[in-house]
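Re: weekly structure request thread

Next one in the queue (151 aa):
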Amino acid sequence: MPTTQSPMDLALSLAEDAARNGEAPVGAVVMEGTTILAAERNRMKALNDPTAHAEMLAIRTALATRGTGRLDGCDLYVTLEPCAMCAGAIAHTRLRRVYFAAEDTKAGAVENGVRLFTQPTCHHAPEVIGGLGASRSEAMLRDFFRALRKE
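Done, posted below.
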């Protein structure tokens, strides 16, 4: 399905939807050229599944849509720097490029933490572009977690 909205704007809208549903505000979109293969948001609480990160759900959906075990030539847009689990899935599915909005200095594994894609044992390292839509994502995350602390 082609899109008129930028992939990161769609991911940010999905993140807002996640927050409205009590989930950490993270959204992810997998693109093959101008076609959306998957658009997901965090659903860990809804699915009672700690692996139901937006990236993991989007990757699973994109793989099913494509009918293959790989996503070569595809790009992932995500509103928060991927964690180690998601970075591992990105490497295994051979995504071409990862765009992320906000850095995650605590749990990120791309430009922070283990920096998975720079490890010699990482069998595939996508191109990584950070900071796209960062201010909007950072504000959403800050507001979400500030509200949680008040509860």
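Helices lie at 7-20, 44-47, 54-66, 84-93, 134-150. The mean pLDDT is 96.
Next request, please.
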